[in-house]
Structures are given as structure tokens and as C-alpha cells.
Amino acid sequence: MSDGQRDALEVLARSQTAPHRQVQRAKALLLAADGVANSRIGQQVGVKAATVRVWRSRFSEEGLAKLGKVRAGRGRKSSIPQAKIDEIVALTQHSKPAGHTHWSCRTMARQVGVSPATVQRVWAARGLKPHLVNTFKLSNDPRFEEKLIDVVGLYLNPPDKAIVLCCDEKSSVQALDRTQASLPMTKGRAATMTHDYKRNGTTTLFAALDVLTGTVIGQCLPRHRHEEFLRFLRTIDRETPKGLTVHLIVDNYATHKHANVQAWLTNHPRFQMHFTPTSSSWLNLVERWFRELTDKALRRGVFHSVPDLIAKIEDYLAAHNTDPKPFVWTATAEDILTKVNRGRVALQAAAQ
Q: Are residues 296 and 159 in the same domain?
């Protein structure tokens, strides 16, 4: 045993995180290097003398290179036939249990005659998760590619002397009050709130996210019509530098295309509208900010009235704008189009 090998084994023998079997083997090899007999080594480390002889033989042949490896052919053999595994996988991917929308470990276990733990191991080894479902929607907008390139171009290569704002409305934000007082968090128990609530009215939040800085222009208004949208456009006009062109990224809601809105835009040529493709709200970065607002200020909030709700939304806006962090867009239009085309091919194949 070389000095380097001894140093490595001593570190492993003292380890508190290495697998127990490796620690045992390291201790045994160190004792063997000191001339201790196999039987006594076995007693000290808790294995048989024959095991010590095998470890010493492997060390003399392979050194430390394969200290933690289990030789091929060793270990407990699988008791589940491959045909049974193939049956579980095929049923999971191509069928459903009677009256159910998806398989569970127990329903599959009863179907194929194995234990639920076996089903779980088969699924885990192949990344199958029948209990989960992801939502998606591919846009059918005939101008999808044109609109996508336009919006992504604003994100990745914004024009000079301009400000890019992602604009949208979070409508029907509810002022929910709980029916009983909430309890504070204590040791061993999370904060609590009642499952039922009292509705105290709604408001609509109009928001415009500055792509470059991450700041948000926000305004709560009682309704969600073109009149309110025009009021918000005037707010944006007041709060943005006059010398900059304003590029507004919006969705295809009819409010954004109303004749009065178009007339206002004609009289304010520094405003330019860019529409996302239909069914593509993920392309508007302000939606990501709305999620932050919901998670941090709305979902667990208690609001006694609509003015109370508006005040707390404005508090969140002020706190956010004190230390804004922009969302950085990295996906190129080419990457997105590749994924969308792949999804359309999969949909066509599934429909056949």
C-alpha cells in the first residue's frame, strides 16, 4: 500500500457521509496493511473473514480505482420478469383503468398482479408519472410566426430611443375577507386561515412592465372596458419620458383594438402596438409579474373592502419599484418555432 493510498483510505475510514460498506472496506484494508489477521479484521469491522480476503484480493488487483463499485453479477437479481415490466409500461402509456382517467400504483398493481411498490419502481425507472398532467395550447393564429418574431425581437434587440412595455389587465381581482381571524405561525405549526371567505367586490389592475428596468406602471380601475384602457394609456403617456417611442406589447383582447383606442393612438404617434399571437399569453412578460403579485400579495391576503385591496396592491407596486428586477428573455424565435412545429407534428400524429 502506497502512502497516497493510505491517506485516501484514512479519509474514507473517518467519513460520516460515505456509504457504510465503503467505510468498512477502508478500515479493513488499513488493518490489513498493518499486518492484522483476516479473522481479527472481520471481528473489528463486522464482516466475515472470507469477505476481508475478497477485499484484499480486489485491492491487490485493482487498487482504489474500483473501491466503491459492485462487480457485475453480484447483488439481488430482479424477481419481476421483463414481460411483466413491459406489460406495466404498455398499460400505463396506452390504456386507462375502467371508470378512471389515469392509473395509480394500486390500480395498476391489482391489474397486473404485483405490489404497488413494484409498479412505483418501474414507473420511476422510466420517468412515467401518470398522476401528473401538464396543460398546453398551441396557437392557431395564421400570423403566429410574424407576431412571434416581432415580440421576441423587441425583447432581444430593443430599438434605440424607445421604451418597451408589456401591458395587460388582471381583471376581477377579488377582495376576499376571511370569516374568522387568521392564526399566526408558531413553532411546529404554519400560519392558518379559514377555507371559506366573504366577497367584498372586485377591481381590475392595468399594468405595464418595463422590459429593460423591471419597473411597473400600475393602475386599479373599476371595470375592464376600452374607456379604462384609454385612461391607462394616458397614465403611461404621463409617466414615460416624452422623447421616447413607446412600444406596447398587448394581447388580442377587443378592448385593445377598439375604434376609440385606435383614434387615440393615431393622435399619439409615439405609441406603437405589438400584438402577441392568440393563445400565447406566455409571450407577454407582464404575465410573469402578475404571478409574482398573486403569490406575494393576493393569494394569502385578507381584504376588508375594495379600497383596502387597491391600497395593498399599490403597496406591492411601490415596494417592487423600489428594487425592480427585470425578467430576462433568452429564447430566440427560431428555438420557439422549432418547439411549436414539433408540438404540431405530435398533435397531428395523436389525431390520426
A: yes
The per-residue pLDDT for range 209-241, each reduced to its tens digit, is 999 999 999 999 999 999 999 999 999 999 999
If asked whether residues 307 and 209 sit together in one domain, one would say yes
48 and 163 share a domain?
no
Q: What is the mean pLDDT of residues 335-345?
A: 92
Q: How far apart are CA 317 and CA 314, in angstroms?
A: 5
Task: Count the neighbouring beta carbons within 10 Å of the beta carbon of residue 181.
Answer: 10
For the entire predicted model, the pTM comes to: 0.72
Q: Does residue 334 share a domain with residue 206?
A: yes
What is the mean predicted confidence (pLDDT) over 40-49?
Answer: 86
Q: How many structural domains are present in the chain?
A: 3
Residue 86: which domain range? 82-126
- pLDDT, tens digit (0-9, with 9 covering 90-100), for 289-329: 999 999 999 999 999 999 999 999 999 999 999 999 999 99
- CB-count exposure of residue 349 (10 Å: 0-12, 13-18, 19+): exposed
Q: Which parts of the chain are beta strand (E)? A: 162-178, 197-210, 216-221, 245-250, 271-275
